[in-house]
From TrEMBL:
Coiled coil: none annotated. Signal peptide: none annotated. This is Rab proteins geranylgeranyltransferase component A. GO terms for molecular function: GDP-dissociation inhibitor activity. It holds the Pfam family GDI. It comes from the Eukaryota. Residues 136-152 have a biased composition (Low complexity). GO terms for cellular component: cytosol; nucleus; Rab-protein geranylgeranyltransferase complex. One of its GO terms (biological process) is vesicle-mediated transport. Belongs to the Rab GDI family. PANTHER family: CHM, RAB ESCORT PROTEIN 1, RAB GDP-DISSOCIATION INHIBITOR. Residues 125-152 are annotated as: Disordered.
Amino acid sequence: GLAESILSASLSILGKQVLHIDRNDYYGGRLASFRFPDLVQVLDGKKQAVTSIHEGSVPAVVSPSKLQLGSNPYSPVIHSSSHWFVSAQSNGTTSSLSQSVQPPVSSLPLVLTEDANVSPMVSEPPGVPVSDGDEPCSVVPSASVPTVPESTSWTRDRVEQRLCRVDIDLSPRIVYAHSPTVTALLRSDVTRYLEFRFVSRCLAYTVLPATTQQNTSNEPVISESVRPNESASLFQIPVGRGELFKTRLLTLRQKRALGSFFEWCFHLELDSDAAPTTNAAQQDSLFLAYADRPFREFLHEQNRLDEFTQELVITNLALGCEDITTREAVRRIHRLLASMNRFGPYPILWPMYGCGDLPQAYCR
């Protein structure tokens, strides 16, 4: 796992000799990343183990010369069930995709260094239907993705070939540019074994309030009740003041209110327990009053944000649910804003080949 890998790397830095023993043939434990064929093998292995237990088979005797790691091998999968809803072969049509297709790269890999300046390396990801509010959804083109001829029907072989493009994380983790995780990677020089990509957009599948679509006055009135349109769309959520005033998702008054909240949250000095420091506590008594109350109440009563903007902030920026407290939500948003422009224009990093690369790099 990741914790054991970090511990072994720390001991190695201190000059100790470390022996890695793992019952699995992959890194990461519960944090592992798989290609689809490898994931299928893990699922099939779990099915065979369950079948053997139900049939009452006796496990093989381990030789005394081998290290006994326990009676049952560890598996990240507790229950396994799978079924294909497409046929194995098509009627005379074959897919033109190769089994060795690599994942499409929308931006160059990023190697983390303290003085990294990688903004020219960022490019837009492959085409995705996105709308920013007033305009209908459009497809963002990407010149780096070649056009692949489509076969006439979906088959099992075609699905498996497409899935070879992706890495599947068992437990996806967000890596903020300003976080203890990145600090540990830099101090231990583990970054030489890793490549990162920026998460260049925060998207939400949601509906717009009627006021955003229909009101065209210079100073739109924000309604507390959200009257959604008939259909939802995929929208880009602004992160930070730079993106905030470029988006058409929010009205001018919504932008001003949310921008003031961003400014306050960014300059709030928090310790590791998400509590204001001594100077900040004297200046932000309102935060202390709402610290253990629902975050939605703080946004509504102190920041005058309407329901639609509250939902965007809670769900997409704080990554929380309805009952998240102000203390926890402010800590998350503060970390998000503090991660802007550290290695580039985006606050979130993603390991090139999945989160399973983190324990693998520490083990090296």
